[in-house]
């Protein structure tokens, strides 16, 4: 095992130490991480969707990926130089304050687009429409659904695969349609909605920590 692999595994070991019930999902978390790593190595992006509390989780994930989580993520020296060459005054501030980002978009936002699409077309396809618009082969769609059967998430997952994207599901313990549609499904060992959501957060924090360590460590 390389030094990087050991470092990344420490995040999962700490997760399982803090949340022993997640031991059962260790391999799924590793598999999900590897899909995300491959996506970002190849210049792809992550699209995330869920409903209610899972929509809040989608936004939370984007916040951890699009700016520094635990690390400062200073801009690369060559980019900092380009910023200052563009404009000495503004570029200096940008070079000091911009942070490295892993591209990620939460599909619950964009109310003008979503309401227009829901009014004009088919409401349950509002996530799928955005996957159709943003997604390309090599990207990843992360569908968060405590039941694993949220129809708008299933339509989005179907669209993602048709676009050549990978699909990661984040669900509860019960078997579901999203599990069957996913390349990797992390099924946290709870069946009550709020308890499932309480375990989703440490899982995606772990994935975000691993990605930050890999790309900015």
Automatic annotation (TrEMBL):
Residues 36-217 form the SIS domain. CDD domains: SIS_GmhA. SUPFAM superfamilies: SIS domain. PROSITE patterns: SIS. This is SIS domain-containing protein. It comes from Faecalibacterium faecis. The lineage of its organism: Bacteria, Bacillati, Bacillota, Clostridia, Eubacteriales.
